[in-house]
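[Discussion] Sanity-checking designs against the backbone

I'm trying to build intuition for which residues belong where. Below is a structure token string of 449 positions. I'd appreciate it if someone posts a full sequence so I can compare it with mine line by line.
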């Protein structure tokens, strides 16, 4: 494999650059989705300062194949390039990894493998960054039959990746979901994550329907459900897109006065009338789209299972099948069976206010890593923002990941409803311009060369 493939890597031909940055795309994605990130990174840091690798081994439907398989593929790409550069006499001394959406979870798996194989003894880990990554999975913490249907239906339409994102999988012999193992303090994955000099995440506060705020920000609360009820604070140089990471949000001290009933009735009626054509179209299209989605998902799942079987039979995999937990003991049993986890009924969106919330209770060192909104949640029994009805496994992930510590940058994109794509300017659209502010902030404030 040539290291000069332009679609695969942007390398220093003179071999002066000793820092490699790897970009990993998300579900249904391909390297083109990361064009703006890669181009902006190259503009900021020339070839003689930074090598760039855009991983391509999980393109398209290959992202159905699960975090483990995807992580092994990306690790193989990285190792092949590192070995080639060593053979060329231009070894890498520093490594950074950027994951977008599902790519962030694949990246977390890959760094665990690199760590276990001794690469971090030869290469210094510098930056680990995720954009809109569902660190806690995508299980919906809402009540109602529609949420339970989504949790059950969605998990079964994306092959291995779907089961893992909805945490109904059992990873190897751990008897736990892979996301739980990825966040275990004794795992190679957390050990690897803790080695990085900087750990940053960017999370949309609204309109990210692929990966909602609570999971991308690793939070047990969602202060942004009602923007009219909160005061948002932004960074001056990046306003109004990037929130102040030290003090992003607080409840408004006083609520705005309620408008007279006849005004609310009038505006509500007009809103309903304008939406009637949309509702009519949805009623007609949803059944057709659901059938088409189900058929396509079944085909892709079948193909994914075949690819996974071939991957398992591939050469060189033994080097990746290593102990996952550093203490050598058996992993804790899952809180409940996979089927029960997906189909169990939740009677509420949030936990009762009177219930003690242990989800974010950590030692003092861990608390220093949490945004102020999380500190507020743990400092008082009557919280400013109610705790979401997450699973026990998700609460444990929050504790463990926040203990390692991420610098959390919250993003408020207003001009486009598809904030999941806009946050990295996934395609060239005028409505995605706010994402350029996000990328500029990342390069100027978060990324270290």
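Best answer:
Here's mine. Compare freely.
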């Amino acid at each position: 494999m040539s290291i000069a493939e332009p679609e695969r890597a942007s390398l220093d031909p003179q071999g002066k650059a000793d820092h490699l940055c790897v970009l990993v795309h998300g579900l249904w994605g391909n390297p083109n989705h990361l064009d703006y990130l890669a181009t902006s990174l190259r503009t900021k840091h020339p070839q003689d300062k930074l090598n760039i690798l855009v991983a391509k081994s999980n393109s398209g439907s290959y992202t159905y194949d699960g975090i483990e398989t995807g992580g092994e593929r990306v690790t193989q790409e990285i190792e092949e390039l590192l070995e080639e550069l060593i053979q060329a006499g231009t070894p890498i001394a520093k490594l950074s990894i950027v994951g977008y959406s599902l790519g962030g979870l694949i990246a977390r798996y890959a760094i665990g493998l690199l760590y276990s194989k001794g690469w971090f003894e030869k290469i210094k880990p510098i930056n680990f960054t995720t954009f809109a990554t569902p660190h806690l999975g995508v299980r919906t913490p809402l009540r109602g039959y529609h949420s339970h249907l989504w949790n059950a239906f969605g998990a079964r339409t994306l092959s291995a990746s779907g089961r893992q994102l909805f945490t109904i999988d059992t990873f190897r012999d751990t008897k736990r979901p892979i996301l739980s193992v990825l966040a275990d303090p004794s795992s190679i994955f957390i050990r690897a994550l803790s080695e990085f000099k900087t750990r940053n995440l960017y999370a949309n506060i609204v309109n990210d329907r692929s990966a909602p705020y609570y999971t991308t920000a690793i939070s047990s609360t969602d202060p942004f459900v009602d923007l009219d009820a909160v005061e948002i604070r932004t960074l001056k140089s990046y306003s109004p897109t990037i929130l102040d990471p030290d003090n992003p949000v607080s409840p408004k001290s006083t609520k705005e006065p309620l408008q007279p009933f006849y005004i609310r009735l009038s505006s509500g009626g007009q809103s309903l009338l304008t939406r009637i054509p949309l509702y009519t179209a949805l009623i007609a299209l949803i059944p057709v789209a659901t059938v088409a989605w189900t058929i396509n998902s079944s085909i892709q799942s079948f193909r994914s299972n075949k690819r996974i079987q071939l991957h398992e039979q591939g050469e060189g995999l033994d080097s990746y099948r290593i102990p996952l937990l550093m203490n050598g003991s058996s992993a804790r049993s899952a809180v409940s069976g996979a089927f029960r986890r997906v189909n169990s009924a939740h009677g509420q969106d949030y936990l009762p206010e009177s219930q003690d919330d242990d989800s974010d209770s950590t030692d003092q060192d861990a608390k220093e890593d949490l945004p102020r909104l999380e500190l507020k949640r743990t400092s008082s029994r009557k919280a400013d923002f109610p705790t979401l009805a997450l699973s026990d496994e998700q609460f444990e992930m929050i504790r463990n990941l926040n203990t390692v510590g991420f610098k959390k940058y919250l993003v408020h994109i207003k001009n486009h409803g598809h904030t999941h794509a806009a946050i990295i300017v996934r395609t060239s659209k005028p409505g995605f311009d706010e994402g350029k502010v996000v990328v500029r902030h990342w390069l100027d404030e978060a990324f270290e060369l």
